[in-house]
Amino acid sequence: MVQKYQSPVRVYKHPFELIMAAYERRFPTCPLIPMFVASDTVNEFKSEDGAIHVIERRCKLDIDAPRLLKKIAGVDYVYFVQKNSLNRQDRTLHIEAYNETFSNRVIINEHCCYTVHPDNEDWTCFEQSASLDIKSFFGFESTVEKIAMKQYTSNIKKGKEIIEYYLKQMEEEGMTFVPRWTTPVMYKLENSTSHIARPVSPAINIPDTATKEGLNNKEVLNTSSSPSEPTAGTPDDKLDADYIKRYLGDLTPLQESCLIRLRQWLQETHKGKIPKDEHILRFLRARDFNIDKAREILCQSLTWRKQHQVDYILDTWNPPQVLQDYYAGGWHHHDKDGRPLYVLRLGQMDTKGLVRALGEEALLRYVLSINEEGLRRCEENTKVFGRPISSWTCLVDLEGLNMRHLWRPGVKALLRIIEVVEANYPETLGRLLILRAPRVFPVLWTLVSPFIDDNTRKKFLIYAGNDYQGPGGLLDYIDKEIIPDFLSGECMCDVPEGGLVPKSLYRTAEELENEDIKLWTETIYQSASVFKGAPHEIFIQIVDASSVITWDFDVCKGDIVFNIYHSKRVPQPPKKDSLGTHSITSPGGNNVQLIDKVWQLGRDYSMVESPLICKEGESVQGSHVTRWPGFYILQWKFHSMPACATTNLPRVDDVLASLQVSSHKCKVMYYTEVIGSEDFRGSMTSLESSHSGFSQLSAATTSSSQSHSSSMISRWRFC
């Protein structure tokens, strides 16, 4: 498995030239890096005007590894080749390094870059990335990987310290300024008298073969800059180390790398609209910084938020009066760590009455609104206290808890709520203080604890009776001045006292079921199933030409082909007895076909967009500017994998896939909207204007460029 590392942008508040002077003091050896024994210059090139300086060194490293492993490997030292390409004119330094020792067994590549800060030319940015691929190593692959990662992360931490050490050393020597490179006078005169202008020291990328064989001036001047070289980013699209420490907390180098790599993946696949960094970090922490696992649950959560419009819940949903009167919970100041404090008087709450009066879904939606408010309060407290706060504390008072609270439908609702919150709000609970736990509590705990994540369970502190008033109790976590009055504190708490819900507010099972369906299906998105041989189709009637059809859909399962057709004929609505059109209802959504089998393409209807193949997990958003009035048919069609081009025989994978019924079914979640061309501001903006469900967790960067073509489509992986 290839291990990768990507650093945040580290900013030195010193000019590039001064940083370069400090960096050069690391060679030929650096006492601050004990493993860096020595280095020898292998190749060196300097351009005539002094702007370009390329130097290649062979570095000798004494790796801190077990003596037995070194003996088995037959080496005492490891050698690396490092090539530094300095461009004084562009003020950049690119560093490339790779291992020479065991290069047939272990592949290590590193790239570092010093550039000028995009917003302040007197500051310098530093980035580095690396990859480690261990092919084989005498059966010690896992051990070598751990040693390599340990050594590398240790050196990463020292990197900035070393530069700052030499900066301080230079300051003590009286060296606090290094002038910028300027074109020598002789080159200025030559350029002014020459009839043919030629560039002086253009930005270049020195090829590896050139440095190994010896460089000459002609080779340098004929080399163009490589477009694949990483360059310093702006604060808008990259994270810097100071920002991470201020708003996200102290992360190890590998944790920083995981955050940056997952964030980059989201930027590439979500076209600039990504969740906030704190939200990404929560999912990484929930999966111990395993990027693949974190990415899976994060994408599932983003799709869930989008489908049920959770982002708008605080603005669009008003809790029923019954909840406001009888739900004994509310926000109450903050704990000693600055976390928002939520107080829940569960023992005083009539869970049975609330479920009978409101239903399970209304309770779930209310809990979701509480969590959304918690996220907002965490952001506010981060600004107020000047340190990262990404979770809240929950204080649960169980006085009054009895067997009534163990009513089966009530426990079922509680387990459902726990399941949804665990999946979509990981690492938001910083601490749970359970006070005055009665004898019946172990029964409730036995029921709910299996549904609670192990990491979350470690945050539970349980106190029986009045134990919370003693040492190690409530005062260790909450200031005395804000302890609620019902816990013998001095602070008046506005949390409702709860009490029994009047039976006159109870509703029948049928009413509750209808209400639950209404609550949880209030979404602008619709679901549809697509089968092999049975596409799903919808039609949109256009009266005014130059209208704009916009769409937004997620491919939740399988691969599909998206088509848009135009017809002057009216597609017939699905009828059970129709031979040409029919519909299928399945648990995953409806399947409707509108194009009659007797219709001919080119005669009865025409294709107005090229077919678009969409893979499982992609989310597609786009628009089509109509040219004619009539009926436009949007079609999602099953996409069959093409057979092998070199043989007529089916592939093994194709045969296995054909044996699986599920492989012939796809699922999409879609939304469409028609707007006037005068209101159209780009597909992404038009969809946002109609509440397309894009996550407000994201610091949205929306493209609103006007399209001159008939269609605009953007895609990203979502599920």
What about the largest sheet? Answer: 8 strands, antiparallel
Low-confidence stretches: 194-236, 577-583, 643-662, 681-719
Q: Radius of gyration, rounded?
A: 32 Å
- The total count of helices amounts to 20
Helix content: 25-40%
Instruction: Give the averaged pLDDT, no decimals.
Output: 80
Percentage of residues in DSSP E strands: 15-25%
Extended strand count: 25
Structural category is alpha+beta
State the end-to-end CA separation: 25 Å
Summary, kept brief:
With 719 residues, this protein is of the alpha+beta class.
Structure, described:
Keywords: Cytoplasm, Golgi apparatus, Immunity, Innate immunity, Phosphoprotein, Signal transduction inhibitor. This is SEC14-like protein 1. It is found in: Cytoplasm; Golgi apparatus. Interacts with RIGI (via tandem CARD domain); the interaction is direct. Interacts (via GOLD domain) with SLC18A3; the interaction is direct. Interacts with SLC5A7 (via GOLD domain); the interaction is direct. The structure is a single chain. The protein is 31% helix and 25% strand. The protein is built from 20 helices and 25 strands. Strand 11, helix 15 and strand 12 form a beta-alpha-beta unit. The longest helix has 32 residues, at 141-172. Mean pLDDT is 80; it is low at 194-236, 577-583, 643-662 and 681-719.
Which key phrases capture this entry?
disordered C terminus; 719 residues; eight-stranded antiparallel β-sheet; alpha+beta; 31% helix
